[in-house]
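Hey all, sorry for the wall of text incoming. These are the two entities for the joint prediction.
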Amino acid sequence: MDTETMAAETRAKRPIRWHVGVFLAPAVLVYTAIMILPLFGTLQLSLFRNIEQSQVFVGFSNFRTLFGDPNWSVNFWNALRNNVWFFIIHMLVQNPIGILLAALLSSPKLRFTAFYRTAIFVPTILSFVIVGFAWKLILSPIWGVAPHLMDFVGLKSFFTPWLGKEQYALTALSLVSVWQFVGIPMMLIYAALLSIPDEVIEAAECDGVTGMAQFWKIKLPLILPSIGIISILTFVGNFNAFDLIYTAQGALAGPNYSTDILGTFLYRAFFGFQLQVGDPNMGAAIATIMFLIILAGVCVYLFLVQTRLRRYQF
Amino acid sequence: MKTKLLTALLLGTSILGTGILGTTGMALAEDVTLNIESWRGDDLTIWKDKLIPAFEAKNPGIKVVFAPSAPTEYDAALGAKLAAGSAGDLITCRPFDKSLELFKKGNLADISSLPGMDNFSPVAKAAWQTDDGKSSFCVPMASVIHGFIYNKDAFDKLGLKVPTTNEEFYAVLDKIKADGTYIPMAMGTKDLWEAATMGYQNIGPNYWKGEEGRAALIKGEQKLTDPQWVEPYKELAKWKPYLGDGFEAQTYPDSQNLFTLGRAAIYPAGSWEIGLFNTQAQFKMGAFPPPVQKAGDTCYISDHTDIGMGLNAASKHPEEAKKFLSWVASPDFATIYANALPGFFSLNSTPVKMEDPLAQEFVSWRGKCKSTIRSTYQILSRGTPNLENETWVESANVINGTDTPEAAAKKLQDGLDSWYKPAK
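and here's what came out:
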């Protein structure tokens, strides 16, 4: 028999691999039902408008209202600006601190690493409601521990009701969110640092690269892909954020909308608030824009950043 | 990704909807069971122990079940249940547009001719009528009155008299501040609505002359930038020095606690606080209406219609449900309700005898002052930007000092002008 007929026979004998489909089905079905269908439902909803109690197709008119009508656009740009600031704080504070903590934790000389690791990670698994409420109390000018603690070290004069001041509220809440989520970059970087083989480190030591130089020249380049992943996770998380602002400042994101981010803006539009009647169509339009912003961010990362990151195989 | 929040919320409501659907379907064959939809979970025991037994005793064969949901979920859950046809027979009505929308959709039945509806004044019924006032769709149940609650012990200790005019009001505040034992006024701006509801809507009616100003605003004859609408903001701006330290981050529960713990002397209030304050405060309390500008001026109070009850148009037992609504419109109901919930005052034209002294004080103002409702509630909060929500934000801004009264009023009027065209 020549090789060609052999190949044809094995091809014919190979049974259809049903199990692949069966094993994929639950994930595909669940994901489609609760993620993909609602996503397309939202996109569709944003192209309709409720006129005389019935849904009428209006094309992109909701988007024209969102960007063209100052009553909507001012709020939208304000929310987007705040959201960008929220993201910047996370990138500048949360991720460097996460990397620093991971570097400290991976140091072989440090004792009780398991304890520190757990303690820093715990806030991440707390509910937003608890975090929002706890920090509201901590920072409360009336019952809070913050003014007392600051009094203790003679810094009382620096205390202001941060959550109630327009110029500080958003930054304060961003930092609360950083406090809550700093455990995630820490864990990811920590895992990346542990996966660096000892041979590489030893080789570096033989070449006389130690201490800080070793971190900057050897470890940091090796964990860059993880830092990239963390940045994109932070980006997606921040532009989807809603819970913390809602629990700490309410749906109107006071004072004077200074903590309003896209999530709270969407909530008010979609579900309404107090006397404001919800408008699901405008809400869906905002949700669509949020989706596009996140999609654009992820694409920039995937096509421009990730392809240029060098990966090292050991 | 982006739909995560949305999906979760939608799923949440639908699960809630089906959960309640499961429990409401069990009507007994002989007795007719009426279900009441409500957001007043706090009132569950009052309905179960007092109101429903009183009705059932007089109407054998009708069973009533009070089935409340959480206030923040009520509107969404009710909408879903009405759409699915699983909502209760009787619907507790929010005032104005939320209920009007339900009526327009055909979810609420027209009950203009219900026996007992003539027990209510036109102002009381206005919250649940079409704009032309021709059809009513909910029986008015209760209103809340704004004013100031004060710590009587503190006033006695400092030798203060209850202020009646603006001048006296600030004199009292100055004295409390100079003494230093008490925070003069317990109010914060963190939650925004305190500033608008307990601030602007509380003292405002004295300036815009209650119903007269409110009606003129709706007709477009007055503007929010007119002196009578800016003046209350100027007063609010003067409140700042009398509020506690860090009032910018003081929440509504903080204010309540500051007052009931006896640390603050005056609390800009709504009468709904009475029940809670009675159980928490260890000192004697009194109340005074918003002070007038000059002695002898007519006083106006905000007597805001807050809660009503309507008939689900799809109810299977409309006759029995109407019987219940007629009873809700009767003085019998009013007496039980107003006494069980001091601070929620009956809108019934027949005066109701109340036991609670603080509630009596509040309701006595109806006799000497003219009543109005909150200026932003009827018609004016239908568009975007929403006037009520903007009033919250701007009132807080004025007290925080980040906006001048004039600038705040201008922003509100500009927002209103952008969508509201008064009928000429």
